[in-house]
Each structure stands twice: as C-alpha cells, then as structure tokens.
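If your schedule permits, I should be very grateful for your opinion on a structural question. Thank you for your consideration; the sequence and its tokens are set out here:

===
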Amino acid sequence: LKKVLTTSYPLKKLIPLSSKSFGSHTFITRSDEYSSIQGYDIRYFIQRCGDENVFQDSRELKKYNNDWLGKYSGLSHLCVTPTTLEEVRDILIYCNERKLALVPQGGRTSLVGGSVSMFDEIIMSLEKLNKIKGFDPISGILRCEAGCVLQDLENFVNKEGYSVPLDLPAKDVCQIGGNLATNAGGVRYIKYGSLRSSTLGLTSVIPNGEILSDIELELRKKNLGYDLKQLFIGSEGTLGVITECSIACVPALPAKRVCFLGVDKYEDVMEILKLAKLTLGNSLGAIEFMDDFSIDMVTSKIEGCEYPFSHKNYPFSMIIEAEGLEGEEEYLEKRLEILLEKGREKIKAKEIGKTPKENSSLWKVRENIGKSYSAHGLTFKYDLSLPLPQANKFIEQIRHRVNELQLPGVEVGGYGHVGDQNIHVNVAMEGYEDNRTAGALQKSLEPFVFEEVVKLKGSISGEHGLGFMKAPYIFMQKPEEEVERMFQVKQMFDPKGILNPYKVLPHGRKNIFKKADEVVQAFLEQVQA
C-alpha cells in the first residue's frame, strides 16, 4: 500500500484493447485530456469507501476488466465499489475535479465493450448498491438500487404474484442499472416493450455531484414537461450514473405452454410469426427463431442442451411461449392447437412443453446459444435490427462473404427475437484466435456489415447499445446534425468528458474508414501473398 500511494501508473500512448478484439479498433490512443491515477487518488478512495471496497490487485481486477463472454478485456488498475448514493456522488465529484476518467459498471453483459475500461479509467462497479428498497403489491411498483441482479428482482416480486417486464439469457448476471443504461430488450419485448416504458423513476448522479431524481413520485402518470430520466436510459453511462430506479412490474403469468417448432423455410418463419400474433393475441409471451448452425452449436457445446427432434435438424427452429393466469392452461392449449392447425403445412415438427421442467428444457436451447458460440472459439457478434423479409437474406449475405475468403473452420449463424425484428449474427472462428488472420477477417466484416444494414434500412444496434465497438459507425446511421446534438447533450451533463470515454460517441468527433471493398481487396492480397 505504501508503494502504491507514492507512485503513478505509466501508460503507453497506444495499447491494445484486448487479446480477443481484432480489426480496425484494436488500437486506440489514450486521450491526453485525462489525468493519470496517483497514489493520493487511491488513498482518497480508500478513505471515502473503505479498503474493502477498493480493488487494486490484478487477480481481483480480472473480473472487472473482462466482459461476460470474454470478448473485451480492459486495462484498469483500480475498481471502486461504492455502497451508498453519497459515495457515488463523492467519487464523481473527485474524479471530475481531478479529471480522472471513470467507467460505471453493471454486470458487463452488453457485448459491445461498453462496460469495461479502455485504458486506465477507474471502474465504478455498482454491484454493492444492491438493496431492494420496497415493493407496492397494489400498484406493482418495485423500487431498488442499480446493482440488483435481474433474476434476484424477479424472484422477489414473484413472491407477491408479479414479474419484472424484462427477461434476458444473462438474467442471472446482469444488473438492473446496466439494463437501464443500455435500454435492454430481451425475449419479452414483443409483449412488454422496452424498459423505457416500464421505468417510472430514476436517481442519477452527474459528474459535478448533482443528484437528479424523480424516484419519490412513484406514479404511472406524471406529465411534468421534459422527462430527463429518458436521457439516462440508453446512454450507457456516458451522461451520469444511475443509482436507483422504480419499475412498474406486471402480473406474473404462471400458466405457460412452450412450443418448439421445426421449419424448412424462412418465409414460413415469418408466416408462423403472423399466425402466432393473430391467434394468441395478448397470450403471446415470446417468439424466437434459430438457424440450423446455431442449433448445431448449442447442442454440441453446452451440456444438457438437446434438440427436441432427434431425427432431423431443420433449417430453422422456433420457440413460442403462450402464457396466462392460473387456471388458463386449457385455454392456452386450445389456442396453441388452433395455431398449429393453421400452420400445419409450414410446421414440419413440433414439441410442446406442459410442465415447468419441460418448458425449461426447451428454453435452455435458445438461452444458451450465445454462450455456445463463445465456447466454440473467437466469435464476432452482431446485434442488429432488420426488416423481417431481409433478415435471413442478410445472414446469407454475410455467410457468402465469409465463404469467399475460403478460410476453413469459419462459420456464420443467426438467431434472435423475430417478434421484434432483432437478430444476432455470429461469425465463429475455430482456430483463428489471436492472430493476424482473425484481424484481417474482422476488417472484411466491418464496416461491411454495418453498411449493408443501413442500406436495408435496419439498425446497427438492436438492444446491446453502441459501446466501444459501434461508436465510430454512428455517422452511418444518424445525420451529422443529430450526432452534433448528442455531443451537446454530453457536454451539458459531462463537460469534462470523464464518464465512459471512447463509448457511444466517436472519440475525436468523426472517424473515417476505408470502404469495405477496399479492405476486402487488401485482405485478399494479403492471403495471396
């Protein structure tokens, strides 16, 4: 401790972001605008938050420096875990005065580098702000701190007959503050919409120490002019730190019937989606699709994930969940029977779960696909929104582009929330980790992937946010005037730019990239050489 209090951390001007992150963003330059951490800084945080809430050991920091699936690795030397709103405020005031860059952190599940440091930014983990402040069983309003894990909140409100209107495969890890900061979507989006519509109040702290809060007005309706909390939702920790929230929960629907389908054509997937919406109505809780490569991946890489149809792996699979109140099981079964009858020519195989264990077994296949790709090897993940008729064509386009490179062991798969046009495209590379070939391959994919999405009138980010990965491409999606207004909002809340730098908005205002075709040609020349 004596040594660390009297020394500073030397930093190279140009350092790699991560051993698992390749391509045009592997190297960025640390901004000279920020101060370096000094011994007296660490002493302040220890005095303010306690030695047990300040982490400096590299073994302890490994957890905070890596995201959920190990795609992004940060280089922070210091993590602080405040336990009160006042500690968050004081840390921000201190960092703002010292101009120390800081990364607010939740469960590190965004997958776009939004929750880990790039250089020596201080990490502020909200994991110890994890108290449930209260729940009103009449209004269904939950009030809790930002570090509460989503699954823990669900378990808590379930006891009162309610459910949190958000469900994610990472629910046992992700934190509600991070969910809000990224405006998380998930598998229930088709029924409940985004978290924005369910958030009634927030407490957020901005760098000068001001606390902005409408948390005390636990009301579903409050039309009071500009709704500032909406700026913090989806801002990825670049405007302020969310410390507390109130969420409008929904009645739990214990009656569930899960249907797993095998389908031959993507056009039939869209037709079944339409039939499900019109046949199940408000009983439709979730509807997802997976291609055959994603099914192969999850059943081969994740223990206990079994495809329901042992005789054949269909080109496309779907999972549909119908849900209702206690006693509505028979009604749900009848509605599913009507759906299956209407779609009988398009549905080639079906498996219906009627018990919680059977439902869980079917959902396990879908919920573990993301993990299975990471278990396979280095994977480039693209969270995108596309008009449904274009979604599978886009996946095939990416697959064709990768195949042109003639690299063995590189595969492309797609899956996602077909009910709300959000797909996840994964380019999995077994045997190409940590080498130049992987870097060149990513350059052939980026910005090509994002250029094509924009051409198809899609969104380069569906639910994970922009983070570090997609920040430079924002000009592809938004006009310069709109991005300039975003910079002005950032300047208003965080004039010194200490909060989550290099994320959401491109560092240095504008980034210029080579056209995708030029990058691919350079790669082909490299391979030929």
User: Anything to note?
Assistant: The longest strand covers residues 255-263. Residues 1-26, 509-517 have pLDDT under 50 and may be disordered. DSSP finds 18 helices and 20 strands in the chain. The two ends are 52 Å apart (CA to CA).
